[in-house]
Amino acid sequence: ILIGVTLMGLTFGQQPFTFLAGYSIGGVLTLMFVWFTRRTPEDRAALRLGAITSNSLLLIAFLCFGIALAEDVLRRYQPVPELQYFTGTAAEWTLAVLLMVIVQPLAEEIVFRGVLYPALRVTFGVGTGIFACALAQAVFHFLSYTPAQLDINTLWVTFALPYLSSLVLTLIRAYTGSTRAAIVGHAAFGLFAIVKLFAFGSM
């Protein structure tokens, strides 16, 4: 993530799309790192990206879209941190959809639910592993999106709500045994953010 954002910042400076493009590049680099460090068929199978019924995936998508709507009420309708600097150009729309619906769900779920959760589950047990995995992702979001000036509202948006989302996604991974299911759930969270942005602009 740091590499992607730094590369885009050095290339384009402080443009509105720099943040979205940098995070997208960071996500792609993350996916490449995980994929190429897990070379054997057994290592890749352990990521649990295998099939799950399409009916189950659809149900998970609807569930997570609904949870995203509920979280938006708790967020008091503020934009998600990834889209807070969105200005509405065509390039930003493309990058926003790419990041929120494809790259971020794939990268974060493969890292947190495909790699980290199984390790935490083996080390600490299922229950503690679920909460620890959710906490790890919430800390990642907090470090990635929290501005220099911290207040209770910022802490709520950049730590508490990401923790709740991550807890839902980790529970999905634990219940279904499928990282693919968690990816679909995460994509539904991202899709809600895009639909809201389309409906209400920068709200």
Total number of beta strands? 0
**What gyration radius follows from the Cα positions, in whole Å?**
17 Å
What is the strand content? Answer: under 5%
Question: Terminal Cα separation, in Å?
Answer: 26 Å
Uncertain ranges? none
Largest sheet: none
Helix fraction bin: over 70%
Using the alpha-carbon principal axes, give the shape: globular
- On the 0 to 100 scale, the average pLDDT is 91
Helical region count? Answer: 8
Oligomer: single chain
Output the helix-strand order. Answer: HHHHHHHH
Structural class: mainly alpha
What can you see in these coordinates?
This protein is an all-alpha fold. 78% of the residues lie in helices and 0% in strands. It has 8 helices and no strands. It has helices at 2-12, 18-37, 41-45, 54-74, 90-124, 126-145, 152-176, 179-200. Helix 1 (2-12) packs antiparallel against helix 2 (18-37), helix 5 (90-124) runs antiparallel to helix 8 (179-200) and helix 6 (126-145) packs antiparallel against helix 7. It is globular and about 40 Å long. The model has no long low-confidence stretch (mean pLDDT 91).
Features:
203 residues, mainly alpha, globular
Per-chain topology:
Blueprint: H1 2-12, H2 18-37, H3 41-45, H4 54-74, H5 90-124, H6 126-145, H7 152-176, H8 179-200
